[in-house]
Structure formats: C-alpha cells, structure tokens
Amino acid sequence: MTGLWRNPTARLWVGIAVAAVVLFLVAPGTLSVFRLNLLAKFLCLAMVAVGIGLAWGRGGMLTLGQGVFFGLGGYMMAMHLKLADAGPGGVPDFMTLYGDGTVPGWWEPFRSPVLTVVAIVVLPTLIAALLGLAVFTRRVRGAYFAILSQALAAAFAILLIGQQKVTGGTNGLNGFRGFFGFALSDPANKQMLYFIAAGTLLVMVLLVRLLYRSRYGELLVAVRDQENRVRFLGYNPALVKAAAFAVAACFASIGGALFVPIVGIISPADVGVVPSIVFLVGVAIGGRATLLGPVLGAIAVSWAESSLSESFPSFWTYFQGGLFIVVVAFLPGGLASLGQVWRRRRSAAADVDDAPAAPVAEPEPSTSGRTA
Fold it and tell me: Does the pTM of the predicted model rise above 0.70?
C-alpha cells in the first residue's frame, strides 16, 4: 500500500476519486440550497482555472485575459436565456427600456438552444486559435503577451459598457426565469445545475490529464522550456501554443455559460481586468504546474472571498493579498505542493536517522612523559 501511494499516478486517481465523492455525494447531502449554489459558482470559476493551468502551467503563457472568453460564453448563454424568457418573436425587457424595442439581427441565432451551445464551444475557441496564431507566429511571449491579453480584457469590458442597448451596459444581463425549459426558481433545478457543473469540471480535468500524458503534452512542455530547439527539430511552436490557448478559451467559455444560470447575472464586472487577475491568482495559489492545483486554488480563493467578505467587508481584499504573498514567498509550488514538501522533509529526516554513526577516533598516546 505504501508503494502504491508513492506512485504519482495512483495519488492522482485517488485524488480524482475523492473529489468525485465529495462533489456528488458529500456536498449535496450536507450543504443547503444556497451553499450548494455557491459551490456551483466556484466550480464554474474552477473551469477557467483548469484551462489556465494548461496554458500557463504547462505552456508558459501568462494569460491575463481569460475574462474575455469567460464573458463570451456567459453573454451568449445570457442572450439565449433572455430570448427564451421573451417567448417566440419576443423582445428582451431591457431592449424596450434602453433601445427601440427591436432585437438586433445578430441576436436572432441565439433563440436556438442548439446553436447557442455550439457557439459557446466553437466561437471562443476559434477566436483564441486565430488570435494565438497571429500573436505566437510573431514570437510575442512573456510579459508582452500578458499585457496584450490584459488589454483585450479591458477593451472587451469597455465595449460591453458602451453598448447598453444590446448588452445591458454596466447592469449586464439578468433576471433569467428559465434554463432550457427548466424553471430556475425550483430548488431541484438548481441542484441539477450543480451536478452539471460538477460533472463538466471533472470531464475537463480528465481531458487535461490525457493531454498531459500525450505526445502533445510533452511537446508543450518542450516549447515552454526550449522553444528554439523545438523549432530546430521541425515543429511549429506557434501551433502548439495556439492549441493550448484555444483549449483554455473553450474551458473559460463553458465556465462562463454555466455561471450565468447559476448566479443569475453576467455583467462587465465579471469579465474585465480584475476578474482575469483573480483567475490567475487562484491558479498560482493552488499550484499551476499540477493537475488538481488550479481547481483547488480557484475554489479556495473564491471561498475565501465569499466568507471573508461576509465577516470583514472592508478588509477581506487584504487577507486575500496576504494569502497570495505567503504562498508565493514560502510555497512557490502552490498549495498542491504541500504533500511533496511534507514527503521531502520526512524522507530527509528518515535519511538522517538511518545514517551510520561516525566512528569515534581513539585518542593518541601521550608523549609528555617520554625523554629524548
């Protein structure tokens, strides 16, 4: 049993099994409807963290603009829900209040639930792939890529605020009554949304696990560490990095789409620069180089934000910043590396205990009494 536990693959599968038991059995049986809905929100944010772990932890791409893709998925889902609530041929309420009472032509395809789901998966993935190819082909990386991605998040939030007639402006889109035919006011349907979020998150983790173990995963690490050498071997690093960036965008979009019916609102405050940085903070605290670390970090940061803001509404951001400083300074591998640190120290202590004692040298005979 001890030898099995020392196997990293065995530990990973045990961790995934424990997470499945907690998510599908323990949490629904012990949490109230409100707390379960809050956990579902945290799981949606963890989906974004899984993609960041792939792009940043394995690919070395510091993505500070995942709020863009989170917002794309969220707004597309919100558009469908508003149109569904308005009925066939109906107009969402905010368009009557802020606009001329007509639905824009680019809103109309989102009346279809099938087209909405396809757009949530395909559109952000395609945008990220094209953007990644354009950026990585020009060998933009490091801080320059981080600044560029953050600028996109800021521009996207400003665009949403300026188009109040079709996006709701700073108020965003809210007041949803149904979700693909299910009433959101029913606690049973809220629990169903939780199970959908939990299952989707586990599927994402397993998909990333397959990518890590594949030849593509090895190539992504090689591009991160020695991009010029990989290019010399005949591979195109831009394609490798763009693929990881696209997968991360897809995960963020799905997380944003599920976030909307669970929370009941999507606004520019959920997709701008600050949320994008918070996504990254959760991944860093959890451990960006591990599989489950980003998930644990995102949930921990979200839980801390919720609980501390309830107890210390004016100071909770300082606690969050202090947690980030402590982890970066004393635990660079994140919370997921706690087990490795403990095993390393335990192994070092065992080696010291098992080391043979140094032989004691016999004293040399004294020569003080000898005569020449």
Answer: yes
